[in-house]
Fold this sequence. Notes:
five-stranded mixed β-sheet; single chain; alpha+beta; two-stranded antiparallel ribbon; Heat Shock Protein 90; 172 residues; 4 helices
Amino acid sequence: xxxxxxxxxxxxxxxxxxxxxxxxxxxxxxxxxxxxxxxxxxxxxxxxxxxxxxxxxxxxxxxxxxxxxxxxxxxxxxxxxxxxxxxxxxxxxxxxxxxxxxxxxxxxxxxxxxxxxxxxxxxxxxxxxxxxxxxxxxxxxxxxxxxxxxxxxxxxxxxxxxxxxxxxxxxx
Length: 172
């Protein structure tokens, strides 16, 4: 809560360096693996149309971006049914890198879409863990401070896709 207030009043202070989003994603997964095990949710990290590990370099604050990954993956786990799967897909390009966190949960309603990244919004859900309604708001602050975009999509087959994109790091 204090971070959100400080970000709102002073702006988000980033400590940027060249970082690999794949490394950040792997670290975030290790942070939530116990939650996934408890909820019996399988986590898979993939790379677009390939199963080979790739790199996705951005100029970013590793700690802040890990917060985004942990928040989005934990939300996906908490909204998934037991035995479900959460998939993290990284799509690298020369302009931007995109991350999609895909779950098989109950999804989001059309009415919720414009509200999900607002402060204190918790949504209509029967998930196991309740929060303060700040995780997605903070994630939006972090991604936008990095010059990126964050969004949510409804899945036709059920569940949701939370995605974000960040500009590709260019070494001059």
